[in-house]
Design brief:
The complex is a heterotrimer. Chain A has helices spanning 9-30, 38-46, 48-86, 119-128, 140-160, 175-183, 186-196, 200-231, 236-242, 266-279, 291-294, 305-329, 353-372, 380-408; strands spanning 246-249, 252-257, 340-343, 346-349. Chain A is mainly alpha-helical. A two-stranded antiparallel ribbon of chain A has the order 1-2. A two-stranded antiparallel sheet of chain A has the order 3-4. Chain B has a three-stranded antiparallel β-sheet with strand order 1-2-3. In chain B, strands 6-7-8 form a three-stranded antiparallel β-sheet. In chain B, strands 4-5 form a two-stranded antiparallel sheet. The longest helix of chain B has 30 residues, at 89-118. In chain C, α3 (121-132) links the parallel β6 (110-112) and β7 (135-137). Chain C has a single domain, classed as Beta Polymerase, domain 2 (2-Layer Sandwich). In chain C, the strands form two sheets. In chain C, strands 1-2-5-4-3 form a five-stranded mixed β-sheet. A two-stranded parallel ribbon of chain C has the order 6-7. Chain C has helices at residues 19-31, 55-65, 121-132, 163-167, 171-174; strands at 37-42, 45-51, 70-78, 82-90, 97-105, 110-112, 135-137. The chains are: A mainly alpha, B alpha+beta, C alpha/beta. Chains in contact: A-B, B-C. At the B-C interface, α1, α9, β7, β8 and α13 of B face β3, β4 and α3 of C.
C-alpha cells in the first residue's frame, strides 16, 4: 500500500502556521518595548483559536490552488493537446518561450512552437480583459448569480474530496453523499442561466440541460447505492482503504487489488460512468451546449470572464467526476511504493499516494476526452430515452447483484 | 407553452451560407417551417447579359464557390449547344477529369461541415486534410484552387501538365484507402451517428420528384436517375461507373442521403482513373467559338448537389440575351418544410446538412 | 399528402433512342392546331410553342399521359413586345426533355400557374414574378423571394437599366440637369 506525501494536511499546515505565527509573535513582543498594549496583541496572535482559524484558511487556499491552478491547467492542457493530435494537427503551442521578456525572448527561437502549457493562462488573461455584457432585458440579478452558483457548488465538491489519505480539507462520514449532492446543485444554476438571459436559444438550451441533468442524477445515485450495499460506508477514505486488499479467489490470493470495478460492481461502474459523462455535459451528451444548433446553448449570452468561469468549471466538473470514479471504483490512491527516502528524519515516499490518484484522474480524463472527440452528439429525446429506459433498470439490477453477493458472501 | 417561431439564421453556425430558416416549434417538435432566401442575391442573370459569352465564365465560377468548375462547365456547354460547336475529344476527357475532381472536393467540403453539425468535430479536420490533396491537383491542372476560370466555350483553358497523371494516381490511391478504412470508423460505424441520421427527414420518391429534388437527394429515395447516365454529356457514355442509388427500400432519410453522397467519392475516383487511361494522349483541347451567335441552348449537368441547368438565349449579338440558371439547391429548399415537419428541433441540422445547401447557387 | 396519383414505377436510368419523335407525334396528335410551333432540336430534346391559354391542358397531358414528371425549370423572357414563359419538363423513364414556350402579351403579363401539377414550380414562379414581373394566377404564395419584400421594380426586364448604363449617372444629372 502506498504512503501519502502529506499524512495529514491539517496537521502539516498547523505546524507551519504555528511556526510562522510564533515568529510574528516574537516580532511583536520584541517591538512592544515602548508600547506595552502590544503584548496583548502578541498573546492574541499566538493563541490557539487564531492559529486554528489561520490554519483552516491556509488549508482551504492550498486545496483550492492545487485544484484550480495546477490540476485545472493540466487537465485543460491534456484535453486540448490530445484532441488536436486526434485531429492530426499540432494543437496549442504557447509556452514560456512566448513570454516577451528575457531570457525567453531570444531572437532565433520561434515563439509559438512550445509545449503549450501556458496557452490556457493566456486564454484566461484574454477573457479577463474582455467586456462583460449583460443583455438589456435580462434578469440582471439571476444572470449574474448563476455563474456564482455553478462555481461555488463545484468548489464544494472539492472541499470534501480527498486526494490521498491525508490531503483533504475535511473528511465527512457522508462524504460521497455530500459530493453527489454538491455535484447536482449545478443544474439549478444552469436552468437559471438559461432562463435569465432573455434569449430563445438559451431558454431551449437551459431546459434541455435541466431535463438531461436531472434525469441522469437518478442512475448516478442508484449506482452509488449499489456500491454502498457492499462497502457499508460513505466515507471516501474508508472506501479506498477497503479496496486495498488483493482479490481472494477460491482460497488463493491473486496479485490483483480488489478494486470495486473487478467485483460485482462492474455494472454499477458502467452506469456511473455514463451518468457522469452526461452530468459533465460532454459529447456525446452535450446537447445543452450544442454548438451547431443553439450557438452556445445556455452560455450564449455570457462574455468575458463570466464565460471563462462557466467554461472552466465544466473542466473542474470533469476533474471532480474523474476523481469520484477513481475513488469509488478504481481503488483511489492505492499503488505500490517503490522506495522511501528519509529527509531529515521524515520519511518521503518516492511514489506517494497523491501521484497514483492524480495518475488515475488524468487517465480517466484522457479517456473522456478521447470519447468526446470521436462521436457525434446524441439528440435530447434519445438522451432521455437512454437515461430513463436503460440506465435506471441497469442500476436497479446492479443493486440486486450487489445485495445478492453480500448475502452469499 | 404556445408555439413560437425560432429564427435559425441568418447568422448561425449551422447554416453554411447566409439564409434564414424559420421553424415553428411546439416544445421540441417542429410544426412548420419557412425558408427565407435571397440574402446573397447578386443579380447574376442581369449581369450576364452585359458581358460577352466567354467573360461570363468568371461569373459562373462564383455561383457555387465550392464546386466552381461544374457551374462554369454547364454554362460553356449551354453556349456550345446554342452555337452548335463541339469540343474536341481530348478536351472532353479533360473536362470529365476536372469535373470529377471538383465533385470529390465539393463532397469532402460537405462532409467536413456535416460532421461538426452533429457534434463530430474530428470529421472537419480529417476531411479538410484530404480535400487539400484534390485542391492541389486542381491547382496543378488549372492554376487555382478555387474559382479557377478553367472551362472555355469550346474546350478548356490549357492542357494537363506532364506530371499530372502520376500525381493524380498517387493522391487517389492515398485517398481511397482513407475512404475505405478511416472515414467509416467515425461515420458509418458510429452508432450515435446512425441514431442521429436514420429515420429523420424522410421524403417519399413521388414527393421528391414532384418537388423537383434531384441528385443524390433523389437517389436516396430509391429513384435510379443520374444525369450522367440518363442524358449523357461529354464522354460519360464511354466510362464504366455506377450511379449510387439507395436500394434497401425507398428510405429517403438523412442516412440514405449521406450514404449516397459518400459512396460517390469512390465512384468519382474510379471515373478519374478510367479517364486517365482512356483519353487520347495528344490532340486539340479547344476550338475557337464564333463571336456572335443566335439561338437558344440548354445544358443539364449532374452537379454535386443535383441537376444544374443553364438556358442561354442569344439574339445575334456577342453577348447573351437571357441566361437562366436553375440551381438544384433552390428546388430542394422548396421541399424543406416537408422534410422538416414532424421532426425535432435538433434534427434541423441533421436534415439540412444532409441536403447540402450552398447558398451561392441558390441565390444567384 | 402527395399530389401524385400513381406511384413511381421502376426507372431504368438510361435514355430511350428516338423517343423525341414519338413524343412530338403524340403531342401533335393530341393538340394539333394549338401548337404554333413544334420541332425536334437535338436528340432527346424537342420544343413546342403554345399560347398561354393552352398551358394547363398541354401540361396535364404531358404529365399524366406521357409521364413527364419532373419540372426542371420555369423561365420568363422579356422580348420587349411580348413575354415568354418557358417550361423545361423532363421524363425520367426515357430521358426526353420538352421545352414548352407559352406566349404572353406584354401589357397583360398573367398566366396560369402549374403548381397544381408540379409543386416544383412554386419557387420558380415566385422567382419569375420577383425578377420579371410575370404574374402566375393560382400560385399559393406569390411574393418576392430573392429581393427584399418592399422592392418596387422588376429588375430583369429590359427597361430596367443595366449596370453599365446606371454607372455613368452623375449627381448633377440625377438632380435633373444634363
Amino acid at each position: 500500500m502506498s504512503a501519502p506525501l502529506v499524512p495529514n494536511l491539517f496537521a502539516v499546515c498547523k505546524v507551519l502556521v504555528a511556526a510562522i505565527l510564533s515568529i510574528v509573535q516574537q516580532l511583536i513582543y520584541a517591538s512592544s518595548g515602548p508600547i506595552p498594549p502590544l503584548r496583548g496583541l502578541g498573546d492574541f496572535v499566538g493563541s490557539d483559536p487564531i492559529v486554528s482559524i489561520v490554519t483552516w484558511l491556509i488549508v482551504v487556499t492550498v486545496v483550492v490552488l492545487w485544484v484550480t491552478v495546477i490540476n485545472l491547467f493540466t487537465v485543460m492542457w491534456v484535453e486540448r493537446k490530445l484532441y488536436s493530435r486526434l485531429q492530426d494537427r499540432y494543437g496549442i503551442m504557447i509556452s514560456i518561450w512566448s513570454l516577451p521578456f528575457w531570457p525567453f525572448n531570444r531572437v532565433h527561437r520561434p515563439t509559438h512552437k512550445g509545449l503549450g502549457y501556458l496557452q490556457n493562462l493566456a486564454d484566461g488573461v484574454k477573457l479577463i480583459q474582455k467586456e462583460n455584457i449583460t443583455p438589456r432585458n435580462a434578469d440582471s440579478a439571476m444572470f449574474h448569480i448563476s455563474p456564482v452558483l455553478i462555481a461555488s457548488s463545484t468548489l464544494m465538491v472539492f472541499a470534501v474530496l480527498p486526494w490521498s489519505s491525508g490531503f483533504y480539507v475535511a473528511n465527512l462520514d457522508l462524504g460521497v453523499l455530500f459530493m453527489l449532492a454538491a455535484f447536482s446543485l449545478a443544474p439549478l444554476g444552469i436552468m437559471i442561466a438559461g432562463y435569465a438571459a432573455n434569449n430563445k436559444y438559451t431558454l431551449v438550451g437551459g431546459f434541455r440541460a435541466g431535463a438531461m441533468l436531472l434525469s441522469y442524477s437518478i442512475p448516478m445515485v442508484l449506482a452509488v447505492i449499489a456500491l454502498v450495499v457492499s462497502t457499508g460506508t460513505l466515507d471516501p477514505v474508508k472506501i479506498v482503504q477497503q479496496q486495498d486488499r488483493p482479490i481472494v479467489l477460491g482460497g488463493t490470493a491473486l496479485p490483483i487489488p480488489a478494486w470495486n470495478v473487478f467485483g460485482p460492481q462492474v455494472l454499477g461502474f458502467l452506469v456511473f460512468t455514463v451518468s457522469m459523462i452526461a452530468e459533465m455535459e460532454r459529447v456525446p451528451f452535450d446537447i445543452p451546449e450544442a454548438e451547431a444548433e443553439l450557438v452556445e446553448g445556455w452560455t450564449t449570452e455570457y462574455s468575458g470572464m463570466r464565460f471563462g468561469i462557466v467554461f472552466a468549471f465544466k473542466w473542474l466538473r470533469m476533474l471532480a467526476a474523474s476523481a469520484l470514479i477513481a475513488i469509488l471504483y478504481l481503488g483511489g490512491w492505492g499503488g505500490p511504493v517503490f522506495a522511501t527516502l528519509s529527509v531529515g528524519g521524515i520519511p518521503v515516499p518516492i511514489v506517494p499516494e497523491e501521484v497514483w490518484f492524480v495518475l488515475r484522474v488524468y487517465l480517466l480524463s484522457a479517456f473522456f476526452v478521447w470519447l468526446s472527440w470521436s462521436v457525434p452528439r446524441v439528440r435530447i429525446d434519445q438522451i432521455l430515452n437512454i437515461g430513463w429506459k436503460r440506465l435506471i433498470p441497469y442500476s436497479l439490477l446492479a443493486i440486486l447483484v450487489a445485495a445478492a453477493f453480500r448475502v452469499i458472501g | 407553452m404556445p408555439e413560437f417561431w425560432i429564427n435559425m439564421g441568418p447568422q448561425h453556425p449551422m447554416t453554411h451560407g447566409l439564409w434564414n430558416m424559420k421553424v415553428k416549434v411546439d416544445g421540441e417538435t417542429i410544426t412548420d417551417a419557412k425558408p427565407e432566401i435571397g440574402y446573397l442575391h447578386r443579380g447574376y442573370e442581369k449581369i450576364m447579359e452585359v458581358r460577352e459569352f466567354q467573360k461570363n465564365v468568371v461569373l459562373t465560377d462564383r455561383l457555387c464557390y465550392v464546386s466552381s468548375i461544374t457551374w462554369s462547365h454547364a454554362y460553356c456547354l449551354a453556349v456550345e449547344k446554342m452555337m452548335g460547336i463541339e469540343t474536341p475529344e481530348r478536351g472532353q476527357w479533360i473536362r470529365v477529369i476536372a469535373l470529377e475532381l471538383q465533385r470529390v472536393a465539393s463532397h469532402l467540403m460537405w462532409l467536413a461541415s456535416y460532421g461538426p453539425d452533429l457534434g463530430l468535430l474530428t470529421g472537419l479536420l480529417w476531411c479538410l486534410r484530404e480535400r487539400e490533396l484534390f485542391l492541389d491537383l486542381i491547382q496543378l491542372m488549372s492554376g487555382a484552387r478555387m474559382n479557377q476560370n478553367y472551362p472555355r466555350v469550346g474546350g478548356v483553358r490549357n492542357d494537363l501538365p506532364e506530371n499530372f497523371e502520376a500525381m493524380c494516381k498517387r493522391s487517389i490511391e492515398h485517398f481511397l484507402e482513407k475512404v475505405k478504412n478511416e472515414y467509416p470508423q467515425i461515420f458509418q460505424e458510429s452508432k450515435v451517428f446512425r441514431m442521429r441520421t436514420e429515420g429523420v427527414g424522410t421524403i417519399s420518391a413521388a414527393d421528391a420528384i414532384n418537388w423537383g429534388v434531384t441528385g443524390p437527394n433523389l437517389r436516396a429515395c430509391g429513384v435510379n436517375v443520374d444525369l450522367r447516365r440518363l442524358d449523357p454529356y461529354e464522354t460519360y457514355e464511354e466510362i464504366d461507373f455506377e450511379p449510387q442509388v439507395w436500394h434497401d427500400g425507398g428510405a429517403g432519410d438523412s442516412y440514405a442521403r449521406f450514404e449516397c453522397r459518400f459512396n460517390e467519392l469512390n465512384e468519382s475516383c474510379k471515373i478519374i482513373l478510367q479517364a486517365l487511361e482512356k483519353m487520347p494522349k495528344t490532340g486539340p483541347y479547344r476550338v475557337k467559338p464564333p463571336r456572335r451567335a443566335e439561338g437558344e441552348g440548354y445544358a443539364k449537368t449532374e452537379d454535386s448537389r443535383g441537376e444544374a441547368l443553364f438556358f442561354v438565349i442569344g439574339d445575334g449579338d456577342d453577348r447573351p440575351y437571357r441566361v437562366k440558371i436553375r440551381s438544384p439547391v433552390f428546388c430542394t429548399m422548396a421541399a424543406t418544410p416537408q422534410l422538416l415537419r414532424g421532426n425535432k428541433l435538433a434534427d434541423v441540422v441533421s436534415i439540412l446538412g444532409s441536403v447540402d445547401v450552398c447558398v451561392g447557387e441558390m441565390d444567384k | 399528402m402527395s399530389a401524385v396519383a400513381q406511384p413511381v414505377p421502376e426507372v431504368t436510368g438510361r435514355p430511350v433512342p428516338l423517343i423525341e419523335k414519338e413524343v412530338l407525334g403524340s403531342l401533335k396528335a393530341a393538340f394539333g392546331s394549338k401548337l404554333t410551333d413544334g420541332k425536334v432540336l437535338r436528340p432527346r430534346h424537342l420544343a413546342v410553342s403554345i399560347d398561354r391559354k393552352d398551358l394547363i391542358p398541354v401540361c396535364t397531358y404531358l404529365k399524366n399521359t406521357l409521364g413527364f414528371e419532373h419540372l426542371s425549370c420555369v423561365t420568363a423572357v422579356d422580348w420587349k413586345d411580348h413575354f415568354d414563359s418557358i417550361y423545361h419538363i423532363e421524363n425520367y423513364y426515357n430521358g426526353c426533355m420538352v421545352q414548352v414556350t407559352a406566349l404572353i402579351p406584354y401589357d397583360d403579363p398573367k398566366i396560369a400557374s402549374v403548381t397544381g401539377l408540379w409543386r416544383a414550380a412554386n419557387f420558380h414562379e415566385r422567382e419569375a414574378w420577383d425578377l420579371m414581373g410575370v404574374e402566375y394566377e393560382g400560385h399559393p404564395n406569390l411574393e418576392r423571394i430573392l429581393l427584399p419584400t418592399d422592392f418596387k421594380f422588376h429588375p430583369l426586364r429590359k427597361d430596367f437599366a443595366q449596370e453599365v448604363d446606371r454607372q455613368y449617372i452623375t449627381r448633377r444629372k440625377l438632380r435633373g440637369g444634363t
